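User: I'm putting together a small comparison set for a docking exercise, and I want a reference complex before I start. The sequence is below, and the ligand is zinc ion. Could you produce the 3D structure with the ligand included, as structure tokens?
Assistant: Of course. I'll restate your input first, then give the structure tokens for the complex.
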Amino acid sequence: MTMGAQSIHLCLDVKGFLANAPKSRYRGMFKHDDGRTMTPDEAKYHLLDELAKGNLFIPFGKCDNFDPKSGCLGHPVGDAK
Ligand SMILES: [Zn+2]
């Protein structure tokens, strides 16, 4: 299937991460609004909170075409190769 040139943001599979990631992976994963790094417990709570809101995926970085149920929907790239 050819979709043309698109860029896709990486995203995090929230449920998969909660199910599989060792606790050490949560360290430094998120920051509070004031810039403090979340502890692993806080980061895990943050992910559980996203899941509770129905967000199965969360984007890495800024994405303006994001579906929390399936991830980045893709962005057309202007000058296709
Ligand atoms: Zn995106």
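The chain has one domain: 6-76. The two ends are 17 Å apart (CA to CA).
User: Thanks, that's exactly what I needed.
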